[in-house]
Amino acid sequence: MSAQMTDEEKVAQASMRFAFYGRVSTEDNQDPTLSLPRQLANCEKAVQEAGGQIVAHFFDVESGAMRLDQRGSGKGLAGFDIPIPRDGGLADLLEEASSRGFDAVACESINRLSRNPSVTFRVEEQLGDEGVRLWAIDEPFEESFGSIVLRHVNVGLARGYLHELKVKSRQGIETAAKQGRHAGGKALYGYKFAEFEHPNPHKAEQGLKVKVLEPDPTTAPVVKMVFHDYVVNGLTITEIERKLNGDLDRYPPPQSPDPKRRTGMWGRSSVWEILHNPKFTGYQVWNRRQRKRGGRLNPPEKWVWSEEPAHESLVSREMFDRANLTAIKRDNVTKVAEGHDQYRKHNYVLRSFLHCGICGLRMHGNVRRGRDGAYYTCELNRRQASLVPEEHPRTVYLREDRAGEKVVEFLSTHVFGPERVDALREALATTAPEADKAQAEVERLRGELAGLQTRIKRLITNLEAEEPGREITADIRARMDELARLRSKKQSRLEAAEKDATQVPDPESAEALMAALPLLDVDWELLSDQEFRALLMALNFEASYDPTKRELTIRVTLIPELTHPDGPRAPLLFVPPAGFEPAHHAPEACALSPELRGLGQENSIALRRFNQQDEPLC
User: Fold this and answer.
1) DSSP string for residues in 225-260
2) Which CATH fold would you assign to the domain 191-337?
């Protein structure tokens, strides 16, 4: 009987190659130049004892609570001279796993990978799909019932530690705010910092000080003037902004912590922030804004006020309350509630359904100055450069009323009209809509890949021309890595698009689905925006506008559940009465034939391009 092999013997026999992964949190006050070499030494010892070897090194300096798409940026490494050759971060590790340059990944403990359970298990699953094991060296290498349970326990402990750390940190900051202590950050506009001896004698011995706000002789009068002009003199925020920008030497504007956002001018948001900041009343206030979701304001009931005034006030509590009351009365939302039509919000019915035919991204609603009516636009300066082809115009415009007319025309003729089956049969025979759209996507992705390859070759040429060791070479390599990752993603999307391009719709099934719909006349003027959007959503409506051809491409997709009354949803059989005038019911309009009920495949049933030269869309 042969003896059972240990984990170390199995690793040694297989001559396994390992990739090291290490992480130092930005919130633990650790020294990456000491922590990461220690993690590597522990992993090297464990791997060598098992008979394997480490052939690649990946590490990051970042929080373990971040989402997977935020990990591995390398930003936290700036300023550190870490004596380990770095092959990349977590994102690079996952990409390299497919090349099978290593057989397993070793980390000191599972919390070094992440303290976010979803990230840990997603990384483990992605590595497993490539045949790569994830080994935390404080756990058994061989997978078993016990090791799986231990892995989940350790992941839970890491998540629990993170939760407890957040709770205690928040409680500490909240307690400090109630005591009137400054919660961090730069001094509020209108104030400057005064330093006092720290109340904790041990920290005082270390030279640490407590910062307290005191009025700044230059900017404090500006804050008082802003409140007086707004509340007493009745000036609007725009008028105050103009007054302040008229004499910047006398009224210096606030400076953003981010140098890129500094304009040297007053803006409406700067004036608004002064009028809505309760700290000018002398109290310390914390938790006004959310740390996530773009720093939006929290409801006032979630604000944490100091129990006593913490610094000298610039305005009274009464003045601050009057400013907020004035803002509410002047707010456009209030005017809408009171019936002011000119302040009502415009609803863009085709939002989220309409895409730009050049970049493929969603177009958004806008109103052009000096033009009547609303437009859908795709603006180059609002797009990520890597997602937009070079030939993209600066701005793409599409008039909403023109687009709406074409959509209604399409629905009335190709979806709910009496000739819809014939139109569908002709479209399928002549244009092959599914293959046409899929092939266009393939060509677009191939073009983007070719552009990326050209940019990478250009960077390689620049890198070869530079002297080794220069600072610019590191920037070039970083940009090359970024483009290589983007190329990998585009390649995956291209492969998926090429697979879709090989699929051909089933004409018979598509015609049967179309014939099962009721015959209706669509009147956009009688339909509410909500009802019309519900109809488009039920039809899986998509539209794309190509400004170079002045062409609007419309596509709807039907599935059997749409017309089967017993299915999970059948919105087309229960259309709202407003806006629809039944012409006559098609045969079997309320159910599909039995042979179609089991269909699980989606069928594209209609595609039409509008190209009208005499009545422009834009």
Assistant:
1) HHHHHHHTS---HHHHHHHHHT-TTTSPPP--SSGG
2) Hect, E3 ligase catalytic domain fold (3.90.1750)
Written as six digits, the tokens of 326 are 């004035």
pLDDT attached to residue 11: 56
Strand partners, 58: 21
- Give residue-wise pLDDT tens across range 380-408: 877 777 778 888 888 898 998 889 888 98
List the CATH code of the domain at 7-166: 3.40.50.1390
**CA-CA distance, 428 to 450, in Å (whole number)?**
32
Cα dihedral 270, 273, 275, 281 in deg (nearest 10): -120
Write out the two tokens for 243: 């007054």
Is 0.90 surpassed by the pTM of this model?
no
Looking at the chain, the number of H-run helices and the number of E-run strands are 19, 17
User: Looking at this protein, which amino acid is placed at residue 150?
Assistant: L
| Rounded-to-integer distance, Cα 116 and Cα 90, Å | 14
Tell me the two tokens of residue 60.
């990051």
Q: Is 280 helix (H, G, I), strand (E, B) or coil?
A: helix
- In angstroms, the CA 487 to CA 476 distance is 16
Residue 516 is encoded by which pair of tokens?
């099962």
Rounded-to-integer distance, Cα 132 and Cα 103, Å? 5
Read off the pLDDT band of 3 (50, 70, 90).
Answer: low
Q: Which two tokens stand for residue 425?
A: 């049969």
3-state secondary structure of 26: coil
SS3 19: strand
User: Domain coordinates of the chain in residue numbers?
Assistant: 7-166, 191-337, 346-431+505-618, 433-504
Q: Which pLDDT value is given to residue 480? A: 80
